[in-house]
Structure formats: C-alpha cells, structure tokens
UniProtKB/TrEMBL annotation:
Binding site for pyridoxal 5'-phosphate: G231, E266, P267, G268, R269, Y370
Coiled coil: none
Enzyme's top EC category: lyase
Protein name: Diaminopimelate decarboxylase
Amino acid sequence: EAAAGPAIRRLADWSAADLTELADEYGTPLYVTDLDRVRENATRLQSAFPDADVRYAVKAHTGRAVLETVRDAGLGAECASAGEVVRALDAGYDEVQYTAVMPPAEDLDIVLDRWRDGADLTVVAGAGDTVTRLRDRGFDGRLAIRVDPGVGAGHHEKVTTGGHAKFGVPYDRAAELVNDARADFDVVGIHAHAGSGISGDDLAAHRELVSRMGDLARSVGPLEFVDVGGGFGVPYHEDEPPLDLEAVAEATRESLGDVDAELAIEPGRYVVADAGVLLTRVNTVKAVDDAGATGKVPVVAGVDAGMTTLLRPAMYDAYHAIRNLTDERPARPVTVAGPVCETSDLFCEERSMPAPRRGDLLAIGNAGAYGYEMASTYNSRPRPAEIVLAGEEARIARERETIDDVTALEVER
Ligand code: LLP
C-alpha cells in the first residue's frame, strides 16, 4: 500500500526546476497533475475511514489517468451526469453511483442504457419526480434517496448545497418516499451532502447532518449504505492548517450512531486539489501610478492563464497561492491578471509577492480540483494542456486545444 504522505502538499514543495522544464517543453498555460499525490490522498482517506465506502466525486477532476489512479487505490466513483458515468465506467470502475441533479432526459436514457447492459449502477434521486421518471423508464435497480439535511456548509454560499431546495427531498418527507419506492426499486441507501470546502470550523454542521442521517436511517429500517456526502476541504492559504481527517472521521462515526448500514462518503476536492498546479507565463508587466498605503508601487502582471483556464478566483473569489518559479525578488503588491476582457479575470489583487518580470513562470497552487474541469473557451481561448506525473515519468494527458478545435462545431451556411 502506498504511503499516505503529509496531509497537504504546499506550493513550496514542488520542484521549481522540474516545473520549469515542463513549461519549457509543453508550453503554458499548463496543468500539471501528480498521480502519486492523488494516490496518497486517496489512501489517506481510506485509512481515516477504514470501514466506509469511499466514492470519489469525479467532477473534481475527470481526467482518465486520475480516474484510473483513484480506481486502483480502491475507491468507487460518484458521478453527477451521464458523461461522468460513461467516463467512470470506461475507466474501469465496477461500482458507479449516479447522483442525479435535475437529470435531463438524455442523461437518464444514457445511464439506464448502461444499466441494462449490465453496469453496476446505483442511482441517487433527489426528487420524487426523478423517482417517477426512473419508474416510467422501467428502472427497478439500485436506488438511493437524496435528502436535504436542512443544514449546509462550504467555502462559499455558491457551493453550499445542504439547506437549499434544489438538492434532495425535504427531510420530513424522506422516510415516506423511501418506503414508497421500496415497492418498485431496490432501495439501497440514503444520501445527503452539506456542500464543498468544509473546514474544521464546519464540524458542528457536519455532525448535525450526519446525526440527522443516522436518525433517518434508523426510522426507515435496513439499508445498504448511508452516504453523508463529500466536501472535505483543503487549505488554500499557505499558512492554513490541513483538515484533521481523523477528527472528522471520529465525529462522523459518533454522530451516525448505530445504524444497520455501511457509511459512505464521496469526497472530490480532497483527492485531487493539492495534486495539481497550474503553470502560467508572465507576458505583460505594468507599474501602477500611485504608491498606495504600503509605499510600494503596485504592479499588474499579465499572464497567459485566465478565468477560462482556472475559474475559481473569478467565480468564488477563491484564494490560490501563487509562486514565482523564475526568481525571488523583493515583495511588492502584485495583481496577477489573465487575458480575458473582464475585471473578474484576476488571480490575485495587490497581493504581496516578488514582483514578476515579463517571461517569468508562475505556479498557481491547489489547481487539481475544479481546475481543468471548469475551463471554458470564452473569448475563443483554447483550453490548456495537461501533463500527468507518475514516479519519474511525465506524459501528456490532455492535448492543448487549438483555435480550430474551438471553432470545429460551427456550422457554415
Ligand atoms: N457529492 C456531491 C453530491 C456534490 O455535489 C459534490 C460537489 C461532491 C460530492 C464533492 O465535493 P468536494 O468533496 O469536491 O468538495 N466548483 C466548486 C465546487 C463545487 C462542488 C460541487 N459539488 C469549487 O471549485 O469550489
């Protein structure tokens, strides 16, 4: 079994020389994903939750090499769409969970085709209406009911799912739905998810969610599993402590109490976040006129990655550590800005860091989760390439898109 490694890999732990070599060879912007680190994170989760079924939320990073690495580490797969289900099955997962969120008809059709072909699928329905649509399509397989636990948590309100009417059936109606569904389906579990980016401060909310799920499980009788969701956070600030996974595991066990079912969790970010960095090259440097409060002249550094490459800062005001791999210079307030014509296209604003020069290479940390996955082609900007590292080997996992790729679906009249 692979060693689980330290609880967090900081940006400073990456070799500047190795990353620079990769950027020189493959160009920028470039995602670099370390598969050994993915395996360590997966292993650490399993040792913290030894008797739980750990299902990787593939939405955090669906690259084939990552999926295979996580599968080899023994985790299952949790999917949010037909596309993710197809990817997980193609990557060789033998048990796949499909957590249907407002499922488009085509998603249900594709997933149920796979089920008819013999795939071992569990469908999680978050609405009575979804159960009806599954029944209408002749599905009578493994079903779980997603519940709104009435309590949520997360790094931003945009990713706090618990307590929002969009997700799950109201807690008070869940037992009835489970019992009704038993007539037509093999009801194997109940499911809830608090949100994404849960920190040590959110432990009380996590306990509350788990204890409500324990109560529900006891009230509906035997189930195969109680899935209490994912959301385990990782530190994005370099001085933030890592989540105490053992404490979370202990709180989970304690709050769940005795239930006639296996515990299931579905973390995404925790598995891949610190296994990835984004490399980007400085192309423009300009000094701002006013010295400002610090007495140091702020600098705006333009880079070739933007909100189309890594959306999190623009979308959630998310903090990502940034390291200049080229040179260490005296710190000054630096704004790192992408090439997209939106003011939100910034990786940081007046952050104290060594002033970059044109040509410098910057590394952006914790880019492994929800990085490439949320990339877009806005501004007709091709999506970046991705390199995966395994031991001493580096290989291309996703080719850089070209402008021809971006326009390929355009239909001329
Ligand atoms: N299970 C369900 C039902 C989920 O909706 C999610 C995430 C997860 C598991 C995995 O959560 P994780 O362990 O990765 O926190 N794009 C956002 C995060 C969105 C999360 C959506 N759902 C971000 O970049 O912060």
